[in-house]
Amino acid sequence: MKIPKRKLFLLIIFAYVAFSLYAAYNVFFSTKVISRVHRVVKKETGAPSGVVRDGGAVAPFLADEWNPWEDEQVEYNSALNKKREAFKQYVGRIDKSKPKRYKVQIWGKAAIGLYLWEHILEGPLNPTDKVAQWREGELQSGKIDFSFYTGPAVVQGHVPLDMNSLILVLNGREQQKVSYSTRWLEHVQSLVQSHTVMHVAVVMLGNERCNNDWIGPYLKRNGGFVDLLFLVYDSPWVNDKDVFQWPLGVATYRQFPMIRPNAQLITSNRPYLCNFLGTVYKNSSRETLMQVLKHSGLDKECITTAREKWLPQETADSLRRYQTALAQSELTLCPVGINTECYRIYEACSYGSVPIVEDVLTPGTCAAGPSSPLRLLKAAGAPFIFISDWKELPAILERERGMSQEQRVDRRRRLLEWYASFRQQMKERFAEVIEETFFKSV
């Protein structure tokens, strides 16, 4: 009988679908799979080791989850785990061998913060505009990554504190400044109490008569939270353990810049022997200085501009005239004020003009010893001319006239090199003390 093509086609399709369903069932739902490479058979719990067939022979049960490559898989996994562990140890050794770095934040709430950041640490500041409300910068020194914030917009509670080590730069010179500094210390104390900050150092412009008792209770040795104090002027507190002497530096509050020495600054022929531009207080040694210059006729060989009243701010013109005087003079006269240490000493060094320093103690409670005053500069071997009386000045200037240009250039170079070395030493010592005190147990 002849089968119609349509029925034959449908029969083939039906057979194909039936076979596909059967195959799918065996693949996905059958519990008994036997192949040449892997046999899995359920083993009855508590069943005998075999069953007796009709002929009396024993038919063994197949092993549960039998895998002919199981031993090789175990060895492979074991080797892989060993490699992973070895790599983990290798990465750990690399991390340990890397020099550990620490993060410290500096809040500059006094003008000497700019001397610390730009002149000592030589860090960048953005924006470069000196009157900007907010300025910040970052640098690495030793094992420490420093970040710096300064400006009027840096206020309590609005500084991004992302580390637990803090350096606060303050001004404690007069009562108004002390009140402002106290508020900042109380703010930092609250951060310490909340465990936001763990380590605190203070860099402070101290009182010119060394009356700094107000900050004593904040020091850790007196039950406070301040680990380190870097203090300007010859304070008797300095012990190089938790209180260190810090240089006054240049008058950054008057916009005195960072001077980069060049060939002209070193080798130029300077037309004046000396300079003094400043305030002459009544009944002070500055009056004596001006009289000596006038009576000896030396005022014609020196640039001198005297004023009776101290001015806190420079104009652009007065700053330019002052810097010109430093650059055109071989020597800079540095009479004492309320304290022996003055900005003029460091500003003269910036221009290679040798400071002639009045080496006498001033009234107050500053340390009195064989190396005082200016013990920090003297300990660093400052190549200055020290005098105890301005009546010695004519003889000094007479010797100055006899020096050759070559001798003057060599002396100028040595002064600039010393000042650069002094700042570098302060930078290294600062970072070293911070690291040793803040992170010695880390």
Descriptive notes:
It comes from Seriola lalandi dorsalis. It is a single chain. With 442 residues, the chain is α/β, with parallel strands linked by helices. Strand 6 (165-171), helix 4 and strand 7 (199-205) form a beta-alpha-beta unit. The strands form 3 sheets. Strands 4-5-3-6-7-8-9 form a 7-stranded mixed β-sheet, with helices on both faces. The longest helix is centred in the last third of the chain and has 35 residues, at 405-439. Helix content is 37%, strand content 18%.
Write a concise keyword list for the protein shown above.
alpha/beta, 442 residues, 37% helix, single chain, Rossmann fold, five-stranded parallel β-sheet, 2 domains
What is the average per-residue confidence, as pLDDT, rounded to a whole number?
A: 88
> What would CATH call the class of the largest domain?
Alpha Beta
Q: Helices and strands: which structural class? A: alpha/beta
Give, in order, the helices and strands.
Answer: HEEHEHEEEHEEEHEHEHEHEHEHH
CATH superfamily descriptor of the largest domain: Glycogen Phosphorylase B
| Order of strands, widest sheet | 4-5-3-6-7-8-9
- Can you count the helices? 11
Tally of individual domains: 2
The percentage of residues in β strands lies in 15-25%
Low-confidence stretches: 32-55
Protein name: Ribitol xylosyltransferase 1
Domain RXYLT1 N-terminal: 104-247
GO biological process, one term: protein O-linked glycosylation via mannose
InterPro entries: RXYLT1-like, RXYLT1_C, RXYLT1_N
